[in-house]
Amino acid sequence: MFVRRMRISLRGWGGVGAMAVGCVLALAFVLLLPLTQSRGAGGQGVGLGGPGLATGSPAKADTCVDSRAQDETWSPSGADGSTIDAIKARTGAKRKLIVGVDQNSYRWGYRNPNTSDAELEGFDIDLVHRIAQDILGDPNAVQFKAIPTSQRIPAIQDGRVDMVVRTMTINCDRLKDVAFSAPYFKTGQQVLAPKSSSITGYNGTLAHKRICTAAGSTAHTKLAADRKAGGPAASADISTTVPNQLDCLVRLQLGEVDAVVTDGALAASQAAQDPTVELKGAAFTTEYYGVAMKKDATDLVRRVNQILVEYRSDGWQASYDKWLSATLGADSTASKPPAPQYLRTS
Fold first, then answer.
1. Given this model, what pLDDT does residue 62 score?
2. What is the largest CA-CA distance in the chain?
3. Which of 29, 195, 253, 257 has an alpha carbon 20 to 30 Å from 40's alpha carbon atom?
4. Residue 189 and residue 264 in contact, taking contact as beta carbons nearer than 8 Å
């Protein structure tokens, strides 16, 4: 083997108070989740590997470079392995894929108050249903678990979920703790602020401003690093962190902070929810979303990568058109990730 290194019904998106309550309840729900769930998932499909795929040893993350982190994943395979077998062995009502998602990110993973059961919908949710269809033969064989931004990695490590599909950026630090699929979306960090603000982007206009980020987010890591290096946020106050990135929008609306830094794709959706705020300047990083799983769930990672190969050519664009074109534009070229390189092969 070669190794190279719930139901929360928000009554309309104009109600900020409802969104805040939704976030709080989602966090409370997570804290009460049992820690007795299975460790992984899997599925069916045509791939590169043979039957009975063994679980591989993870590559060392110390050789990872952030500019190539999105390629630090296993090559695709449709074969089952121990993780997938364990998921398929679940019986009765428990025979479901257990997935950590967001339920408050508009058009990504959110509860639609206009449906009878406030159903979870969005770009990430479409991908979850596609994975469940391949693995268990039923797109609805999913148990969704609402997870705050700061709990994505712990939920995977503790076995509360089989995977997380929640606008999660692939980077080297996270690869030390979890495994990622190939990327399914391309984005970058961006500044969100009131339209009336003097802030123009990630530049000197952030001096002495109060900036909100989600705890454990790539945005907070970037700001902290730039402060030490004397970057644009060197004099800014970045002490305000929240469990969910949507909580930052609430803080912004209440006047408790001057700006939010988060993924541009999410910021665009928040701007669509609140017409008084807007994106300021261009994205100042390049990042890729991936499906996160346990480090030793190699068969599951490879299976998800096989699903993504097919999804990119049949399903990705339709989901983008439905959920994201209104906020990110009809041209999806900038958001569709390049073909992965698969630095981990066998």
1. 58
2. 59
3. 29
4. yes
